Amino acid sequence: MTKWTSVLAATMLVLASVTCAFAARTDLVLGMVLEPPHLDPTAGAAAAIDEVVYTNVFEGLTKIGPTGEVLPGLAESWDISPDGKTYTFKLHTGVKFHDGTEFNAEDVKFSLERAISPDTVNAQKALFAKIDTIEVVDPATVKITLKQPQGGFLYNLGWGDAVIVGSESVATNKEKPVGTGPFRFENWARGSSITLVKNPEYWGEPVSLDKAEFRIIPDAAAAIPALLSGDVQAFPSAPVAEALDQIKADPRLKVVIGSTEGETILSMNNKKAPFDNKLVRQAISYALNREEINAGAINGLGTPIGSHFAPHNPAYVDLTGTYPHDLEKAKALLAEAGLADGFSATIKLPPPPYARQGGEVIAAELAQVGINLDIIPLEWAQWLEQVFTGKDFDLTVISHVEPNDIDIYSRPDYYIGYQNPEFNKVIGELDATVDEAKRKDLYGQAQKILADDAPVGFLFQLPKVGVWDAKLEGLWENTPIPANDLTKVKWTE
Fold first, then answer.
1. For 453, left (φ over 0), alpha (ψ -120 to 50), or beta?
2. Could you read off the pLDDT of 445-482 as tens digits, one per residue?
3. Contacts of 249 by beta carbon, 8 Å cutoff, 6+ apart
């Protein structure tokens, strides 16, 4: 080897080293507080299942995007009949399950018939209750006919409970999930971690990550050192409220505060005096200082709401100004209702800190307008028995975490006891409407009716506190559904 050959070889070695040094990482360790009981989203209600496998391992005909929008999934397109009852889905071709079997319309028929069968183990079987028939037109086309129009049908098909599974692998999906997604299941070390690896034969856009490990960290105190040491590079739902300032001060980490589907409300028993009087409910709404409640309940991390709708939803209407904090207005409304001297009531609080701590702040605020509350702490079982089931309460604080659940105010036997024919009409029309622009308008109407009628005190949306490496991008800011969608996640330099 000549001198110049040696120099050239050394130079090439240095360049290769520099290239490797600046190449973006392709592995990721995410922290999770709760370990899923198993890994089949069609056979369990635990959110932790979807947080690992939704969109990553399993896919549905549609998928829910980061702001709650409905996107194409295994179905590349669909047509809806004029009567809104028949959906014809055109499926992607060339799709394979991770075990090598081909995906086609027969798998869609199998999966949905399994979900609606009398002996189904699907935790959200009500989502599919309006399905009448499922017909395989050809391997790439499936026709689903409903018993009646259902405006939210495409959204329902995007839930983790509606993912498509193969008949050949369904029996073992709890332990070794087999889907069509961009990641394959590799390993589950019980009590420690779940590892996914890139699917090289994925039918869609390739993902940037080669490997993703979901690290189980049930001890909240351990989450902070894991993040600060870099052992865990992301904690999409981080239990670090007490150490938030410390984490924000670290330039290596990014703190992202988003919202969830958890509308936190001061529920009132609308069938019980004096809460059956709209003037009293409005007075309470004016007496609430939402900024103060937010600070006292969850360190100010919640997003204020003025109706029962998630701020990240495209159909959200900002109605937070409907009842600004105004003690004099509250007193005047109480006087108009014949309660100038105020009244006494109870507030039953379940265990979560947002409820216990928030309830104490609310009690102090309502006392300023003459409403004296007796605080009654309850355990979860007691709250479910007395409040939710027994409807034995005056006031309570609770977060409703189901997606798009504004319809609960139209349910005739719901614990809040609110009924408004105008609102019920809007919800009925919404359920039967498939046009997205019209649905958005109806959602807006429903939100405005609730904001004005004040059946409850609307407080804040539960926050999603995400912490991850500052060089990481693509993780969801909000949680429209339980998910850690890794399809757009990548490292930057």
1. alpha
2. 999 999 999 999 999 999 999 999 999 999 999 888 88
3. none
